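Proteins fold reproducibly. Take a tokenised chain:

. . .
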Amino acid sequence: MHVRTPTVWNRAPRSRGTDSSAPPPVSLDEGALSVGEVLETIVGCKWSVRLLDQIAAGTRRPSALLRGCPGLSKKVMNERLRKMMRFHILERTVSGSKPPLRVEYRLTPFGQRFLRILREVRKLQEAVDAGRFAARRNPSALRSLRPRPARAQ
């Protein structure tokens, strides 16, 4: 049995405009985390998906994101946003030289592609809900999900 030991992040003194308590970004290039794991982590939280939808629709300020998700606490919102920044789905921009600082979030190119995957998952769920894929009664119903081979010309 493998026991997972907690990771301890070195905490440097905080300076304005940076979040030194956040863990370093996850490197997708080095194979440290698969896209499937990122998808599972993000889709596993209802707030992450809602926040991504709002940011994709043009809402960028944290206060507007919070207003757009009734029931979401500021703490959970910040945790979700930090996690998506670590996965390179979002980028954070801080502007202004003195408080109040203006903070905005936007999708990265990877985040835009990731959002397309989420939209496809949503379409698939709608198809299942509509009864177009009755996998429990008829396992062969899922064959239409497989990509079709290209025809030779």
